[in-house]
Design a protein that fits this description.
With 246 residues, the protein is mostly beta strands. The chain has two helices and 19 strands. The protein has two domains: 133 residues, Immunoglobulin-like, CATH 2.60.40.10; 89 residues, Macroglobulin (MG2) domain (Immunoglobulin-like), CATH 2.60.40.
Length: 246
């Protein structure tokens, strides 16, 4: 009988040792330790816009547990910022919550306890951030997940609705023409292409910046009718007619 009881105790201890002390729940579903989730967003002209991740942390033990949260930048877009909230929100230079939040035995954190905040600040691309939650008294009792904050360029329609772009002038042009532009945040690449009447590309010029002027020389082109096409973020924004005359 004593051997049987000793074996039962060993088996029970093994079950608790193999169980995950903390688990994570994202959008109503359980997620595995080390899982990666995506938060997708589109760039806007609001430089202060934030993209958030939320997760619930469950204490699977039969005792209350003081839990801390830690943030680690794995691969982030240069110029972007992110910060952590764990009951309270902390500046972006704080990577670990100073205080623990006590999760009652067998319960999950309320939705308001944890949030990860990502500010692209005008920069598109994917940033990966790791969030770890651990027992303050036994740090090896931990669970983590990674978030890919995927920020896409603003659509061309949204850009044009918030942009100021002049027509080419002078038109007719003799030696060169100019276009004034003022783009909202979200334009990563801009290019002006010039085509002749049969659709052949005769000129292409890339330019950068949020506002300014683009000047294009047509001194080497024969007189005639052309069409200039403005391409923003690899998408055609519009095409207009240009006359070269001398």
């Amino acid at each position: 009988m004593k051997k049987f009881l000793f074996l039962a105790v060993l088996l029970i201890s093994g079950v608790y040792a193999g169980a995950q002390v903390l688990t994570l729940h994202w959008d109503g579903q359980d997620i595995e330790n080390g899982a990666t989730v995506n938060v997708n967003g589109e760039m806007t002209d609001n430089i202060y816009e934030e993209f958030l991740s939320h997760v619930l942390v469950k204490n699977n033990t039969d005792r209350d547990m003081p839990v801390k949260a830690r943030r680690e930048d794995i691969d982030v877009v240069t110029g972007s910022k992110n910060y952590l909230c764990w009951e309270s929100c902390y500046p972006d230079d704080v990577t670990e919550s100073p205080n623990a939040y006590t999760i009652p035995a067998g319960e999950m954190t309320p939705e308001t306890v944890f949030s990860g905040h990502y500010l692209p600040q005008g920069y598109v691309g994917t940033s990966t951030v790791k969030y770890t939650f651990f027992n303050e008294n036994e740090p090896d009792d931990q669970v983590y997940f990674l978030v890919n904050y995927v920020i896409s360029p603003t659509s061309v329609d949204d850009i044009l609705s918030n942009a100021l772009i002049s027509s080419a002038y002078p038109n007719p042009a003799t030696n060169q023409f100019t276009i004034d532009f003022e783009f909202p945040i979200g334009v990563e690449k801009a290019e002006l292409k010039l085509f002749n009447l049969v659709g052949q590309e005769v000129l292409s010029k890339s330019f950068t910046g949020i506002n300014g002027k683009i000047q294009v020389s047509v001194a080497d082109l024969p007189e005639g009718i052309y069409f200039y096409n403005l391409v923003l973020n690899e998408e055609s924004a519009f095409a207009k007619k240009l006359i070269v005359r001398r």
